[in-house]
Write a structure and sequence with these properties.
Elements: H1 6-12, H2 14-17, H3 19-31, H4 38-49, H5 56-67, H6 74-86, H7 95-102, E1 110-113, E2 127-130, H8 150-161, E3 169-178, E4 183-184, H9 186-195, E5 205-212, E6 215-220, H10 229-242, E7 246-251, E8 255-257, H11 267-277, H12 287-301, E9 308-312, H13 321-334, E10 337-341, H14 356-361, E11 367-369, H15 374-386
Parallel strand pairs: 6-7, 6-9, 9-10, 10-11
Antiparallel strand pairs: 1-2, 3-5, 4-5, 7-8
Helix pairs in contact: 4-5, 8-10, 12-13
């Protein structure tokens, strides 16, 4: 019997090759002091057989659901999982662990959400980070996309598609109750005092509500951006998956909206549909006309009003500078902030624009970021969560 994809074949080899590995992991948990029964191990193995063992996140959550019975055991489970699957031990390498590490985007940082904050003996953090030690042949986070091989680019794109892009938020004028705040809820306190004949009983606090702010990504897919356009599109896919209020546009010589094409569960399918939607991929560049087309759509549909607009382009514009200046001026009036991502910025702290398009657009840009490697894209994602 043959299978259509290598991943399915890899998953089906679990009963014969990986059951012993999972049992050894359960024994390591017992040695660390956790109570793990035989039925728990069977449930763990059955669960992993239905998942993808090449994805360490699947293995982690299957074990955490089947083997951890008390919240106090979560830190111990995390530590044993890291030592068993991720740390390299002296001596001969286990081929099964090597295969799992190679198939799970090695070189990244495996980030596991902390769903039970404030556990004993554990700092209250949003994530529990399990270090992932990578060899020199694996992907480097600080390596530029232009210097990566085809294998490294495929691994990088998988890591970008799994990146967590937190949506920006803005404070509204509406309020909600709070345990502690600098604002007193005088209306609530007045109502309570009427029930107690004018005697204040407790202090009531309130705080401003937060609402998701719209995010608009305008990607340059012209020939000069060929080394970066696919990776930036993968970043846009991650942003769209995290926030429904994300709109994505691509432009070369004309503007194309690809938001619906990215609404796919499979990243490769979304990339294929987006590529089919854009007719001027790897063509010329007319930044001014594309941004002017966007501002016209924004006026009609209130698309970018109050939004964070991110333009990903190298600034090599073949259109008229006056058109670009007028379009950027109109965009700055509509958007909350305008962020420009230029891969040619690199790691330079002080960026001086050299292309004509960047020079013309610079007075209307609030921030300039680089997007030439994975590390800069992650820093951009962190910044977008705070810029609202």
């Amino acid at each position: 019997m043959t299978f259509s994809t290598p991943r399915r074949a890899f998953r089906m080899c679990l009963p014969s090759e990986f059951d012993a590995l999972l049992v050894d992991f359960a024994d390591a948990l017992r040695e660390a002091g956790m109570a793990v029964g035989t039925d728990d191990v069977l449930t763990f193995s059955a669960g992993v057989s239905c998942l993808d063992i090449s994805d360490l996140m699947d293995v982690y959550w299957a074990g955490r659901a089947a083997l951890v019975r008390r919240r106090e055991s979560v830190p111990t489970y995390n530590l044993v999982f890291q030592q068993f699957f991720l740390d390299r031990q002296p001596g001969p390498e286990d081929a099964r662990k090597t295969m799992m590490r190679a198939s799970s985007a090695a070189g990244a940082t495996l980030q596991i959400p902390n769903t039970e904050p404030g556990l004993p003996g554990q700092a209250s953090q949003d994530e529990i980070k399990l270090g992932y030690v990578a060899s020199t042949s694996e992907v480097y986070r600080n390596k530029a996309f232009t210097e990566c091989s085809d294998t490294e680019l495929r691994m990088l794109r998988r890591m970008i598609s799994q990146m967590r892009v937190e949506p920006p938020k803005r404070r509204t004028y509406r309020t909600t109750r709070a345990r502690r705040s600098s604002m007193l809820d005088l209306r609530r306190m007045s109502r309570e005092m009427m029930r107690t004949f004018g005697e204040p009983r407790d202090l009531s606090f309130m705080q401003r509500k937060h609402k998701l702010r719209s995010l608009v990504l305008i990607l340059d897919v012209s020939g000069s951006m060929a080394d970066y356009s696919r990776n930036l599109l993968q970043f846009a896919y991650s942003a769209r998956r995290a926030n429904a209020k994300v709109d994505v546009f691509c432009f070369g010589t004309r503007l194309t909206r690809i938001t619906k094409s990215l609404d796919r569960r499979d990243a490769d399918d979304a990339m294929r549909l987006a590529g089919e939607s854009v007719m001027d991929w790897d063509g010329g560049t007319r930044i001014g006309e594309a941004i002017r087309s966007f501002t016209r759509q924004a006026r009609r549909a209130r698309l970018g009003r109050g939004a964070i607009v991110v333009i990903c382009s190298d600034g090599l514009d073949r259109g008229e500078p006056a058109v670009l200046a007028e379009a950027m001026q109109g965009l700055s009036r509509v958007a909350h902030r305008v962020i420009w991502v230029n891969p040619h910025k690199g790691d330079a702290l002080e960026f001086v624009p050299t292309s004509l398009g960047m020079i013309v657009a610079d007075p209307y840009i609030d921030e300039v970021h680089s997007g030439h490697n994975l590390d800069t894209l992650q820093r951009l994602a962190t910044r977008l969560a705070k810029v609202g």
